[in-house]
Amino acid sequence: MALARREGAEEPTIVVGAGLAGLVCARALADAGAPVRVLEAGEIGGRVRSATRDGYRLDRGFQVLFTGYPGARRWLDFARLDLRAFDPGAAIRHRGGWAILGDPRRDRGAFAPSLLTDVVPFPDKVRTLLLSARLASRDWDGVRAIEGRDRSTLAYLSACGFSPAYIDRFVRPFYGGIYLDRALATSTRVFSFTFQMLALGETVVPAAGMGAITRQLADGLAAATIRTETSVRALLREGERVVGVRTDAGEVRAPRVVVATDCHAAAALTGLELPHDGLATTVVYFGSARALVAHKKILLNPAPDAFINNAVQISNIAPEYAPPGRHLLSCTVLGDPDLDDDTVIARCREELAEWFGPERAAPSHLAALDVIRVPFAQFAQPPGVHDDLPRNRTAVPGLYLAGEYTEDSSINGAIRSGEAAAGEVLGDRRRPARA
Fold first, then answer.
1. Any idea what the Cα angle at residue 166 is, between residues 162 and 172, rounded to 5°?
2. Is the full-model pTM beyond 0.90?
């Protein structure tokens, strides 16, 4: 592959991967006047992308954006994304029905139901409000900015005095959907930051699907900057220095290469030791003529043997996710079950039938649209993991990393990593290259 350039012009930095971190890195370089080229093996967006099936918008797994994310505020035009907000809180499966637990400061309609429900003890409701106020006052740009003792989320909540009923009925399914693990073994830093984001802003999706986020970032780059369907097979090296990449079409020389793929692909390409323990998720989408619920809250299933961890009538939040007159239901199953798609769908129907009745969960009412499996949705984040994550600048001259695994497993983490990688490149670009 030959990339045309003017005589004497600076060769562009190569960014391998057009996911969230790679696109932010490329945008930061381009905005600073540094030439950049993005090479993407597949589609733009990485894990933050959407597909269309029979007129429905299907995100790659259940994903949301927290408007409180500092990185998102820096790089995204919220107005152009046409954001649609969830109602704060959740509807929790309880005693054969649904208990509403909301934030009375932001959802007045949920004040009385939240106050009266016995799904969690009243002292825990007070502790939640106090914790929300305390964490909202902190000045954190990301998880790695949080200092102090780190421990598991379960240990932290227990030390704060939260009851087992609160933890089991609300925290395990709610944060299970964020962590993709109901054991609550994830770092307290992650809990504290996400809890702060929930307190400071809204939980939203773009009207056009989560893929609109990465499309907006890509649209901010010149059309010729991104090359899709271009697989990078190897790094070019001269001595200890990386000097470009090898693709199926040939070699591409570059003074600097930023690897912005997922951590497994990055490890294979660079030979570096990167975080490899991951968590999977599976999302089952159903379409229907009638909505199963009328509200905009997430549905939580606290049952110890739950198959569906959480669900949401996503077309209530963003009607654009479904064709006119239709509705879209998203059901999240933690992990990647060793079951075929038909069995996964059938298991979801069984639980939905318990919740809403057999008739409303029947195929005649609820049509299965797709089963989306994401084998590596995020890397594991046990206590202390963030202190030992790789840096954006590697020990190999000319080689940099951009990916959430250098920060934390979130949209904000990916954005921060892209920013940091660009900062390292720009800093080194100002210095004379040395062999």
1. 110
2. yes
